[in-house]
Specification:
heterodimer; A: 80 residues; alpha/beta; flat; B: mainly alpha; 7 helices; 4 strands
Amino acid sequence: MAQENVSMKENDMAQTGFEPRILGFFCHWCCYAAADSAGVSRYQYPPNVRVVRVMCTGRIDTRFILEAFKCGADGVFTGG
Amino acid sequence: MAETCRQFLKDCGVDPERMSLEWASAAEAPRFVELITGYVSKIKDKGPLGEAEGEEEREKLIRHLKAGVKAAQARKPRTALGTLSKKLHKEGNFSKEAITEGVKAKILPALRSERILQEIKMLLSEGALSLDELSKEVKAEKEEVEKHLSTLSKKGTVKEETGKWSMA
């Protein structure tokens, strides 16, 4: 939880246009690996997602998502 | 879990579409890129949190969410979640309708009531408020707020003075 707070604050800089702050919960074995291989194969994708790696998507709780919105995230992307 | 989250976010005043759950395997980098790009542009269209949601001001929204976090930790809604998943498992019916209905009937009321309770406590610790003000602030019917207030006053946590409620 502390991690989220920090990452949201860090990004609180002045914005030109609207850049959404999105928190991503990625499963270590699926989406995280996909993100990794997307990087390796040099695909371009928006840099708005801050990633929290979880060992399994099943670890994610309703509370995590609410907490993210509470800290001011504009969206939460869960990738399994 | 995702359905619970969606319905409860709506209750807190957040557009449930801001939460997305997608599947991409480790070998599907192009699909992942597609998903992320699509999602980010969708959020960009919606604008910052608290703006697209309509009349609700941001501060109020954050308070709903704060109470929501507490509610999500409470015992009652968590038990409800466990009971529902057991029931679905027993019946072997994992259709979307069954899940939506189950969440709506069992989990959401528990979460909502817990959120209202937490929010009443938060508001009253800041200052005295009347019943009308309370129900407007917590986004709930008067009857719901009244029920919580009467249980709280029985416990001796809150008291009423000339139509205004405050912490005892």
